[in-house]
Structures are given as structure tokens and as C-alpha cells.
């Protein structure tokens, strides 16, 4: 196998760090071609000296660029959002791993797919906000999109096990009866509604099985992450919302399941370690030795499954509604949630109010069934401002 060149966008986050671990383990099968961060230039410099990319990028023009002066002259430095968009459009990269957090992921994903690139997508917001236009672009430009989220990767792996080469995920789902996304239930799985009313940021960050960034961990606690994943799955796999479901699985070992029309169920199992779905994406579905944790089959193991409580976790119902509505609903929900989570972290919003404010903003917005990229970005900005105003009142 020839060496595959990877652009890691979001290199210092949890996904980016795990991806670099996978690349280092690959014994030359994978190499870093580009590293991009928002503003962490010290960490970027350290990574560049270790992995020797062709290009490094800093999205925030106000970041301190002084540490980058120590890099060898042959490493190109790109600064600013426009420069980063140009970077991901270069034909140099075999795979672009997009692991930034937030709606900026939509614009970057658009640029990768617009040039027919291969996108390893670890950004929920891109498909939640612009799933319809991204999947249309994927079909028209002939790119490849491989999901990195453990749940969607699990479904993709189950579907791809019946094919020989990666294709658009939605093409693989013709004989699927149901997709079953698993959820750990987060730290609040057994909490009462009254206890959730008084949940603190510290409480929300105590995830029982995964190590993730703060925003994603809080989304897991509210089950909003699963709501967003339902919207993603609707676009990724081209299924009606009635064929999407969620089950609580506290052990986080079964990452998701696919039920076929004949009643057979395929599941992907592994210890909770994001390096496995990341590696699957970087190798475009080919298997190789991995640094990810392996099962110890000599030890006893118990797998539990429970139906989700839609009353205590109203974000799930909201996610299903937004997935069914399509259009601009996902973009507004995502933007409102980002602002609400940030407000919760600042102590300006109760935990149990996150889903409530998101529903309010989604209901207020001027729905459009077939938005353009510009429309989505405009509504994203509107939803953020509207959510801030709701919280301030």
C-alpha cells in the first residue's frame, strides 16, 4: 500500500490527537501533510516539528504566531479562515480529517467535497446544518465521505461489510429496515428531572465511558449529541426518520447496529476508543494494525440495553422532529445548542433549560425546505443572536 497523505484539521483536539496517534502507529502507511488549529500555535509548532508536514495553518488571525517562527523554512504557514478553506481544497491530500468543533465545519466540509476530495468527517455540525447540500455536492462532484463519529462509523462498517469498496453511505442502505444508534446515557442516565434541574457543569463533564471535549461531553449529558446524530444519520444514510432509533447502552461497547429487512442485525463492537473509527476512515475502510484497545475475551463482560426516556431528555424528541422536518431546522437547532451550552458553562442557563431554549428558537425561525449554503450560514448567525437574547431575558 502506498503512503497516504492526511490533512488533520483540528490537530490539537481529542480527535486530532487520536488521529496523530494512529498516523504515528502506521509505520509509514500514513503521513501528515497538513496540520491546522484554531489558535494553539505552541502546540502546533511542537506537532509540526514531530510530524514534518508540508503546511501548517492557524484559523484565527489574532493568534500569536511567534512560536511558528522556529519552524523550518520549507514548512508553509497559512493564516486565516480563507487560507484554511484554500488549504482543504488542495489536491495534495488523500484524506482530509475534519475534527473542528462548531458550524465552521460546514464551510470546510463544503470546500473538501466541492473539489471531489475524500472527507473523514468528525464534525457533527456540518451534516446537522447542511446535510442535504453536502450529500448533493458529494453526488455531483464524486468525492468520498466517511463518518468518524463512532456511531455512524459503526453503521457504515456494518453496511460496508457487504461491499468491497467505500461508496456514499446512502447507496449502501437499500435493504435496511432500521438503524439503531447506541447512547451511553451519559452521567445523568439515572437522574430524576428534579436532580437534572440542579446539575452543575462539573456533573455534566463526568462522562462514564468516553474522554471528549467539554462541549461534546455536555451534549452527551443532555442527549443532544444523540439528537444531532439522528439528524446526521438521516442525511448520511438516506433513510426515513421512522427508520432511525436510539437505545441506551451504558457500556459503550456496541457502537451502533443495523437491522435488515429480513430481521438480521449487524453490530460493530469494540472498547470505547476513537482511534478505531478514525483509522477506519483514514484507511478508507481497509483494515490494518491499530493502536486502539482490544477486547480481553478471557474476562466476563455484560452488555445492557434500555429504551431512552424522552421525557427526562427532551433533546431526543427535538432531534427527531428536526430530522423529519429537514431543511433549515438542523442548522438552527445546532446554532441554538452551541450558544445554550456555552451559557450553561458560564452559569447563565440551567442544564434542563438547554433543550427548552433550542426548541423555542427552532419554532421561531423562518423555515426553508431547500436552503443554500449562504442561507444556512445566515440563519446560523440569526439563531445565535436570538438564543443570546432569549438567555439574557
Secondary structure: elements and pairs:
Layout: E1 4-9, H1 14-25, E2 30-37, H2 41-51, E3 55-58, E4 76-79, H3 81-88, E5 95-98, H4 104-114, E6 118-121, H5 124-141, E7 144-147, H6 150-160, E8 176-183, H7 193-197, H8 201-204, H9 214-222, H10 224-237, E9 244-248, E10 254-260, E11 265-269, H11 275-282, H12 315-325, H13 329-345, H14 354-364, H15 373-392
Q: Can you describe this structure?
A:
This protein is of the alpha/beta class. 43% of the residues lie in helices and 15% in strands. The strands form two sheets. A seven-stranded parallel sheet has the order 4-3-2-1-5-6-7, sandwiched between helices. Helix 1 links the parallel strand 1 and strand 2. Helix 5 packs parallel to helix 10, helix 5 runs antiparallel to helix 13 and helix 13 runs parallel beside helix 15. It is globular, with a radius of gyration of 20 Å. The model has no long low-confidence stretch (mean pLDDT 92).
Question: Which band does the percent of strand residues land in?
Answer: 15-25%
SS class: alpha/beta
Task: Please give the alpha-carbon distance between the first and last residues.
Answer: 59 Å
Within the largest sheet, what's the order of strands? 4-3-2-1-5-6-7
- Tally the beta strands: 11
Global geometry: globular
Order of helices and strands: EHEHEEHEHEHEHEHHHHEEEHHHHH
Mean pLDDT across the residues is 92
- Rg (C-alpha, Å): 20 Å
Amino acid at each position: 500500500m502506498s503512503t497516504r497523505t492526511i490533512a488533520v484539521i483540528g490537530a490539537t483536539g481529542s480527535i486530532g490527537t487520536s488521529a496523530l496517534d494512529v498516523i504515528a502507529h502506521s509505520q509509514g502507511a500514513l503521513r501528515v501533510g497538513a496540520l491546522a488549529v484554531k489558535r494553539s500555535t505552541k502546540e502546533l509548532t511542537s506537532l509540526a516539528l514531530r510530524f514534518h508536514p508540508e503546511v501548517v495553518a492557524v484559523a484565527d488571525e489574532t493568534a500569536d504566531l511567534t512560536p511558528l517562527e522556529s519552524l523550518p523554512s520549507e514548512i508553509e504557514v497559512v493564516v486565516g479562515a480563507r487560507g484554511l478553506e484554500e488549504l482543504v481544497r488542495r489536491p495534495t491530500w488523500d484524506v482530509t480529517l475534519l475534527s473542528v468543533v462548531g458550524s465552521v465545519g460546514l464551510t470546510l466540509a463544503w470546500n473538501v467535497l466541492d473539489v471531489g476530495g475524500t472527507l473523514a468527517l468528525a464534525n457533527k455540525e456540518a451534516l446537522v446544518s447542511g446535510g442535504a447540500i453536502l450529500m448533493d455536492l458529494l453526488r455531483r462532484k464524486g468525492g468520498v465521505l466517511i463518518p468518524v463519529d463512532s456511531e455512524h462509523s459503526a453503521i457504515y462498517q456494518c453496511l460496508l461489510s457487504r461491499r468491497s469498496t467505500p461508496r456514499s453511505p446512502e447507496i449502501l442502505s437499500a435493504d435496511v429496515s432500521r438503524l439503531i444508534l447506541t447512547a451511553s446515557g451519559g452521567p445523568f442516565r439515572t437522574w430524576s428531572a428534579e436532580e437534572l434541574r440542579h446539575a452543575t457543569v462539573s456533573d455534566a463533564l463526568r462522562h462514564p465511558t468516553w474522554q471528549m471535549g467539554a462541549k461534546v461531553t455536555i451534549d452527551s449529558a443532555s442527549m443532544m449529541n444523540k439528537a444531532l446524530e439522528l439528524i446526521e444519520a438521516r442525511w448520511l444514510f438516506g433513510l426515513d426518520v421512522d427508520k432511525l432509533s436510539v437505545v441506551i447502552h451504558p457500556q459503550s461497547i456496541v457502537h451502533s447496529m443495523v437491522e435488515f429487512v429480513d430481521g438480521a442485525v449487524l453490530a460493530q463492537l469494540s472498547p470505547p476508543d476513537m482511534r478505531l473509527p478514525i483509522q477506519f476512515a483514514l484507511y478508507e475502510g481497509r483494515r490494518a494494525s491499530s493502536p486502539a484497545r482490544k477486547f480481553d475475551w478471557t474476562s466476563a463482560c455484560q452488555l445492557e440495553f434500555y429504551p431512552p426516556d424522552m421525557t427526562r431528555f427532551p433533546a431526543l424528541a427535538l432531534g427527531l422532529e428536526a430530522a423529519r422536518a429537514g431543511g433549515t431546522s438542523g442548522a438552527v437547532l445546532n446554532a441554538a445548542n452551541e450558544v445554550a451550552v456555552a451559557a450553561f458553562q458560564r452559569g447563565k442557563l440551567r442544564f434542563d433549560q438547554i433543550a427548552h431554549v433550542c426548541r423555542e428558537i427552532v419554532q421561531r425561525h423562518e423555515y426553508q425546505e431547500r436552503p443554500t449554503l449562504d442561507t444556512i450560514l445566515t440563519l446560523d448567525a440569526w439563531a445565535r443572536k436570538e438564543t443570546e437574547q432569549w438567555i439574557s431575558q
